[in-house]
C-alpha cells in the first residue's frame, strides 16, 4: 500500500491486453504498474502518451490519462501536454521503429531541449506491428522480410544516441529482469528533465531470442554488467568476477583482476565514458545495464513559462496585435 492508497491493480485498465502471447511487453506493463503503485502516483495527474507500434498500445492498458498519437510524434505531443500543464507527470512510450526511424528527429530534440518527460523506449530490434521488417536497431546482416539478403546498415545504439543528444538521464534494462526493470523505472521517475530508459524487449513472433545470448539464466551472470554508481564495473559469477576498464584509446577492455576495473560514475558531466560502454560489441564484451548517465540540468518548460511571464509583464499589446504583428497585408 502506498501513500495514495493505490495498488498495482488500480493502474490496470478495463481493456483486454492484446499483445501476442509471450510478448515481452507484458513484463514491461507489469513492471510499470508495479512501479507506479510503489511511487504513490495519482492517476489523475499521470499521462501516458504513445506513437504507433506494438508498444504504443500501452496507454489503453493503464488506468491513467493517455493519448495514442501518430507515428513518431509522441515526443512532440507530450511536449505540448507538459507545457500546457507542467504539473502533470508525462510518460512517453515508444519503440525502436517509432522512436528512432520516423520519430528520430522528434526524439533527439526532446532530449536536447530537456523537456520534463519520462521516455520508455522498447527495443526489440524489429518492426513487430508491420510483421517483421528490420528496424534502426537491427544488427548488421539481419535477414528480415525487407532485408532478405541481410541488412547492410550499422544499427543505432539508443543509449549512445541519447547521450549524444545531451539527455539528462539515460538507462537500460531488460523485460525479463523484473526487479531491475522496476528499479530503473523508479530511477527514471526521479530524474529532472528528459529521461530515457531503453528496455530490451523480446518479440517472440518476429525476432524471438534476440537477447538470449545474455538474458538466459544459464549465461546472464557471465554476460551482463550491472552498473552501480561509485562501484567497480565488474561482471561474472561470484568468485570468478572480471572487470572492465578503458585502454589508452578509450576502448573498453576486460581485465581479470577486478582491482583494475574502473569505478562507475553516473553523474560524470562528460558522456564519453558512458558512450564507450554503450557501444561495446555484444559479440566480444558483456552487456551493460543500469544507469549510464544522471546529470540534472535546467528544464525546458521552466524557461518557456519564464519567457511567457516576462512577456505578459512587459507587453502592452492585445492578443490580436500580437498575432498579426507589424507586418500585415490586405489581399484583393
CATH fold-level topology of the domain at 8-210: Rossmann fold
Q: Find the count of extended strands (DSSP E, 2+ residues).
A: 11
Find the CATH superfamily of the domain at 8-210. Answer: Thiamin diphosphate (ThDP)-binding fold, Pyr/PP domains
Any low-confidence stretches, pLDDT <50, length ≥5? none
- How much of the sequence lies in strands comes to 15-25%
Terminus-to-terminus distance: 68 Å
Global Rg: 22 Å
Structural class: alpha/beta
In the CATH classification, which architecture of the domain at 8-210 applies?
Answer: 3-Layer(aba) Sandwich
Structural shape: globular
Largest sheet: 8 strands, mixed
Number of helices: 11
Helix content: 25-40%
**Strand-and-helix sequence, N→C?**
HEEHEHHEHEHEHHEEEEHEHH
Strand order of the largest sheet: 2-1-3-4-6-5-11-7
Average pLDDT = 94
CATH class of the domain at 8-210: Alpha Beta
Tags for this model:
Rossmann fold; three-stranded antiparallel β-sheet; eight-stranded mixed β-sheet; 332 residues; 30% helix; alpha/beta
Overall description:
It is built from eleven helices and eleven strands. The protein has 332 residues and is of the alpha/beta class. The protein has a domain at 8-210: Rossmann fold. The strands form two sheets. It has an eight-stranded mixed sheet with strand order 2-1-3-4-6-5-11-7, sandwiched between helices. β9 (242-246) and β10 (252-255) form a beta hairpin. The longest helix has 15 residues, at 300-314. The mean pLDDT is 94.
Amino acid at each position: 500500500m502506498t501513500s495514495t492508497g493505490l495498488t498495482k491493480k488500480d493502474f490496470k485498465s478495463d481493456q483486454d491486453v492484446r499483445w501476442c502471447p509471450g510478448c515481452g511487453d507484458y513484463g514491461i506493463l507489469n513492471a510499470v504498474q508495479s512501479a507506479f503503485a510503489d511511487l504513490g502516483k495519482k492517476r489523475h495527474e499521470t499521462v501516458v502518451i504513445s506513437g504507433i507500434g506494438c508498444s504504443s498500445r500501452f496507454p489503453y492498458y493503464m488506468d491513467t490519462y493517455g493519448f495514442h498519437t501518430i507515428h513518431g510524434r509522441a515526443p512532440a505531443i507530450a511536449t505540448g501536454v507538459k507545457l500546457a500543464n507542467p504539473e502533470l507527470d508525462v510518460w512517453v512510450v515508444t519503440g525502436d521503429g517509432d522512436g528512432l526511424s520516423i520519430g528520430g528527429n522528434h526524439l533527439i530534440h526532446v532530449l536536447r531541449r530537456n523537456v520534463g518527460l519520462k521516455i520508455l523506449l522498447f527495443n526489440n530490434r524489429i518492426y513487430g506491428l508491420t510483421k517483421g521488417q528490420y528496424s534502426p536497431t537491427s544488427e548488421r546482416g539481419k535477414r528480415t522480410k525487407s532485408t532478405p539478403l541481410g541488412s547492410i546498415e550499422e544499427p543505432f545504439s539508443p543509449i549512445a544516441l541519447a547521450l549524444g543528444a545531451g539527455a539528462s538521464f539515460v538507462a537500460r534494462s531488460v523485460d525479463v529482469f523484473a526487479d531491475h526493470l522496476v528499479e530503473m523505472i523508479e530511477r527514471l521517475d526521479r530524474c529532472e528533465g528528459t529521461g530515457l530508459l531503453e528496455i530490451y524487449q523480446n518479440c517472440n513472433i518476429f525476432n524471438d531470442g534476440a537477447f538470449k545470448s545474455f538474458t538466459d539464466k544459464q549465461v546472464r551472470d557471465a554476460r551482463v554488467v550491472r552498473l552501480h554508481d561509485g562501484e567497480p564495473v565488474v561482471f561474472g559469477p561470484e568468485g570468478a568476477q572480471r572487470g572492465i576498464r578503458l585502454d589508452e584509446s578509450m576502448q573498453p577492455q576486460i581485465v581479470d583482476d577486478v582491482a583494475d576495473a574502473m569505478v562507475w560514475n553516473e553523474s560524470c558531466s562528460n558522456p564519453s565514458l558512458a558512450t564507450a560502454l554503450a557501444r561495446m560489441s555484444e559479440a566480444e564484451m558483456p552487456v551493460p545495464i543500469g544507469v549510464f548517465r544522471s546529470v540534472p540540468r535546467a528544464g525546458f518548460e521552466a524557461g518557456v513559462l519564464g519567457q511567457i511571464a516576462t512577456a505578459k509583464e512587459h507587453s502592452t499589446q492585445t492578443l490580436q496585435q500580437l498575432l498579426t504583428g507589424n507586418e500585415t497585408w490586405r489581399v484583393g
